Amino acid sequence: MSDVFDSLYLDIVEEIGINKIKKMVADVIEETGTLKSETALVNNLKGIIQDERLAKVLSRINRSSEAVERYILLSAKSSDLKTLGIARAIMTSSDKLKTLAGIFNFATHKLYSRIILWIDDMERVEFLSGKDLFELQVFIRDLLEHVPQKLNIIANFTLKP
Q: Residue 2 — very low, low, confident or very high, per pLDDT cuts 50/70/90?
């Protein structure tokens, strides 16, 4: 996995922050009243997030906040995965994309009417290797496909004189 994709992923997730994600989960619990089971919470979250694994992880945020945070920030240990009840960590670019899309969908459902992702210094694209440039293009395209209605991406270029 390229450093470009990892950097974008981590910058976005850290900007949103675990506390806002906790608040969104608390809002879902409050809206639906006292849920009879964790399964009901997972199902409610899955309906919003559109990703079952992320919904399962976030349903445990009140009990295992640090494990959830490590999972989302790509530093989960095997003990964290066991606590969260999932088989593997976020590893592939597809996993990262699904997680970001899920968080964006959740945020636009609970906190924001729209998300604007501003990517500054895009003129540096010329310094990326072909592989990294391809991964950046795939990231932007796939993110827009997974979060099509409430996500705007602005790429800022400063042209040379």
A: low
Q: Which residues contact 147 (CB under 8 A, 6 or more apart)?
A: 101, 104, 105, 108, 115
pLDDT tens digits for range 29-51: 888 766 567 788 888 999 999 89
Quick one: DSSP state of residue 152? Answer: E
Q: Is 151 helix (H, G, I), strand (E, B) or coil?
A: strand
Q: The tokens of 133 are what?
A: 């440039």
Q: Which residue has the tokens 């608390």?
A: 26
CB 127 within 8 A of CB 117: no
Q: Which pLDDT value is given to residue 1? A: 38
Number of Cβ within a 10 Å radius of residue 77: 12
Residue 155 phi, psi (nearest 5):
-105, 115
Q: How many Å apart are CA 18 and CA 22, to the nearest integer? A: 6
Separation of alpha carbons 119 and 111, rounded Å: 21
Instruction: Give the position of tokens 């409430």.
Output: 150
In angstroms, rounded to a whole number, what is the distance separating the alpha carbons of residues 93 and 109? Answer: 24
Q: How far apart, in whole angstroms, are the C-alpha atoms of residue 107 and residue 113? A: 8
Are 59 and 38 in contact by the 8 Å Cβ rule? The answer is yes
Residues 144, 52, 58: CA angle, nearest 5 degrees:
95
